[in-house]
Amino acid sequence: MSERVGFIGLGIMGRGMARNLLKAGFDLCVWNRTPEKMQPFAEAGARTATSPADLAAQSDIIITCVSDTPDVEAVILGENGVIHGARPGALVIDMSTISPKATQRIAAALAERGIHLLDAPISGGSEGAERGTLSIMVGGEAEQVARAMPVFQAMGKKITHVGGHGAGQMVKLVNQILVVINMLAVSEALVFAQAGGLDLEKTLEAVTEGAAGSWMLSNRGPQVIARDWRPGFTIDLQQKDLRLVLQTADELGVPVPTTAVIFNLYRTLQRAGLGHEGNHALVKAIERLSGIVVGAEAAQNNEA
């Protein structure tokens, strides 16, 4: 607990993660691009910083959890970025989902200043962030993973060191392929069940614990039935991750046909102004293709 921790990015995921670090007793400093998001943390005992560089100067371990590759590059390497405040020996942990190649470039730039990097993207939705049950996939040096373990254990339940710099991001992209294809399966299955006149709650009860079970089915299936589109992870952020998958697959020469289809289905929902909804709203693309709405009675007041 002796190391001071800084946390950059208090969005859907970051705020729950930062709260769990406070609960675990860490000496925490926070910074967010929108300053008002820091206020609840200040009231709960966290220090606040005026910039990423200021936060880094006050911290031994600096965590970033922001939206996209350019955001990570800005808060770490940009003007007033972490690199300008961190001391040699400091550890930066990027828990965003970004380009594996960019991660390697950032690691090299930090290493020139004697600063360590771990890429440690996360999975488990806002629920996992709030409960401290995230899955964390970590790339970087084993010694730094061991150093960071108390911090990881305050935020996550399953922490896996998967390889060197960039490997955490590659595993996260594997995770995202599985997430969206599972959600497409959930979407097709629920539309099929609706068309067949089944009791949707009973159907989920029957299949969730069998071979068809998945995290997406258990956690997002009930939300679809309830027409509850509150995001554990938004469509817009999911699309950012799928763009990274498609770019990386292109670089590797690997076909990912189903992921590409899902990317384009999500694009139709973005065009309809639904990018702020949870990624489980993928079902709406299948509903529009079929003309069948899941949970149709509840949908009458919610669907155009």
Automatic annotation (TrEMBL):
Family the entry assigns: Belongs to the HIBADH-related family.
PANTHER family: 3-HYDROXYISOBUTYRATE DEHYDROGENASE-LIKE 1, MITOCHONDRIAL-RELATED
GO molecular function: 2-hydroxy-3-oxopropionate reductase activity; NAD binding; NADP binding
Keywords annotated in UniProt: NAD, Oxidoreductase
PROSITE patterns: 3_HYDROXYISOBUT_DH
Top-level taxon in the UniProt lineage: Bacteria
GO biological process, one term: organic acid catabolic process
Stated name of the protein: 2-hydroxy-3-oxopropionate reductase
UniProt EC number: 1.1.1.60
Top-level enzyme category: oxidoreductase
Ranges of residues in domain 6-phosphogluconate dehydrogenase NADP-binding: 4-163
Active site residues of this protein: K172
Residues of the 3-hydroxyisobutyrate dehydrogenase-like NAD-binding domain: 166-285
UniProt cross-references to Pfam families, sorted A to Z: NAD_binding_11, NAD_binding_2
